[in-house]
């Protein structure tokens, strides 16, 4: 075996002892199916708490400032049911996105024994992540917050305190969609409530004093407008990524890493769990289970060693990029 340079996104280490696969700790035994996943990141936990607080604040204002004091019973019941249903689905989607393994690659599997068991053939390579001592399958990227390599990683979102990857992208899309819907619904109700209060006596349109009512409604209006814009953009970005079968990271590296893509409808069905059905919008319905990684998923084929050698880097450049992947190949 020998170490050779590859393209500049994956500059390799000239010193084979840097990765030291023989010192990698063997991967732990996989836990039972359904084991909860949780990232212990202070910033992410704080953002997740803020998310829940803002949704519950909107619940409070909608119920106790606008709907319960309303004299129109039908209006209050219908809007109360719709808003609470959307809020419940939003928070459920948030929990699923936060507590679902996004597609973490087994940690510490870049051992000498495992690499030898792959029986690499001439022209075949394996990419090894020196940060988590894992062999990276195609389309996997390392997250510095989760401290794991994630399959089909799109980005790390602090609002859900997790990476958005292969296994939880559906829940993240639903979360952004339902937050956008409750934000729009809240803005519409605030508009109607202001019109109603201007026409009626302010003391009769809310159980709170007029100044308090105005402040609460303005804060809700600001929150709804901000989150409507933000989540709508995120929702559109995620749907575009799914339809084009290209994650955010892959889009940034498109010029340097051209690859084949799946048909858009096939990618959508895999993300949301089969053919179109109401389960697409159900955060308690799982997406299609990814196929277990086989030996061929760890190995990648290169056209020729000479092509890879054309991107050779200097010893100094290699030393500056010790955090990048290493690659191990079989010479012909």
UniProtKB/TrEMBL annotation:
<dbReference type="InterPro" id="IPR001594">
    <property type="entry name" value="Palmitoyltrfase_DHHC"/>
</dbReference>
<feature type="transmembrane region" description="Helical">
    <location>
        <begin position="45"/>
        <end position="67"/>
    </location>
</feature>
<keyword id="KW-0808">Transferase</keyword>
<keyword id="KW-0012">Acyltransferase</keyword>
<keyword id="KW-0472">Membrane</keyword>
<feature type="transmembrane region" description="Helical">
    <location>
        <begin position="214"/>
        <end position="235"/>
    </location>
</feature>
<comment type="similarity">
    <text>Belongs to the DHHC palmitoyltransferase family.</text>
</comment>
<feature type="transmembrane region" description="Helical">
    <location>
        <begin position="171"/>
        <end position="194"/>
    </location>
</feature>
<protein>
    <recommendedName>
        <fullName>Palmitoyltransferase</fullName>
        <ecNumber>2.3.1.225</ecNumber>
    </recommendedName>
</protein>
<keyword id="KW-1133">Transmembrane helix</keyword>
<dbReference type="Pfam" id="PF01529">
    <property type="entry name" value="DHHC"/>
</dbReference>
<feature type="region of interest" description="Disordered">
    <location>
        <begin position="304"/>
        <end position="332"/>
    </location>
</feature>
<feature type="transmembrane region" description="Helical">
    <location>
        <begin position="73"/>
        <end position="92"/>
    </location>
</feature>
<keyword id="KW-0812">Transmembrane</keyword>
<feature type="domain" description="Palmitoyltransferase DHHC">
    <location>
        <begin position="128"/>
        <end position="254"/>
    </location>
</feature>
<dbReference type="InterPro" id="IPR039859">
    <property type="entry name" value="PFA4/ZDH16/20/ERF2-like"/>
</dbReference>
């Amino acid at each position: 075996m020998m170490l050779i340079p590859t393209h500049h996104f994956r500059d390799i280490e000239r010193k084979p002892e840097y990765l030291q696969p023989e010192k990698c700790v063997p991967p732990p035994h996989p836990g039972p199916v359904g084991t909860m996943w949780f990232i212990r990141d202070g910033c992410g936990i704080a953002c997740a708490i803020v998310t829940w607080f803002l949704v519950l604040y909107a619940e409070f204002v909608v119920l106790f400032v606008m709907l319960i004091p309303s004299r129109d019973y039908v209006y209050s019941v219908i809007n109360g049911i719709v808003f609470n249903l959307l809020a419940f689905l939003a928070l459920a989607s948030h929990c699923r996105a936060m507590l679902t393994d996004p597609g973490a690659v087994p940690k510490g599997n870049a051992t000498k024994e495992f690499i030898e068991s792959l029986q690499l053939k001439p022209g075949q390579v394996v990419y090894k992540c020196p940060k988590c001592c894992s062999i990276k399958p195609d389309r996997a990227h390392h997250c510095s917050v989760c401290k794991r390599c994630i399959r089909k990683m799109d980005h790390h979102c602090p609002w859900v305190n997790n990476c958005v990857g292969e296994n939880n992208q559906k829940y993240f899309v639903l979360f952004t969609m339902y937050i956008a819907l409750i934000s729009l619904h809240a803005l519409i109700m605030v508009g109607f409530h202001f019109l109603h209060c201007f026409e009626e006596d302010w003391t009769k349109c809310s159980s709170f004093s007029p100044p308090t009512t105005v402040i609460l409604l303005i804060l809700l209006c600001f929150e709804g407008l901000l989150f409507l814009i933000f989540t709508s953009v995120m929702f559109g970005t995620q749907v575009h990524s799914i339809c084009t079968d290209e994650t955010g990271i892959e889009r940034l590296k498109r010029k340097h890493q051209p690859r084949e893509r799946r048909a858009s409808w096939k990618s959508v069905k895999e993300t949301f769990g089969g053919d179109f059905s109401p389960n697409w919008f159900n955060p308690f319905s799982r997406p299609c289970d990814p196929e277990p990684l086989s030996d061929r998923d760890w190995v990648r084929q290169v056209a020729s060693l000479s092509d890879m050698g054309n991107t050779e880097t200097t010893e100094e450049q290699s030393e500056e990029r010790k955090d990048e992947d290493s690659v191990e190949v079989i010479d012909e």
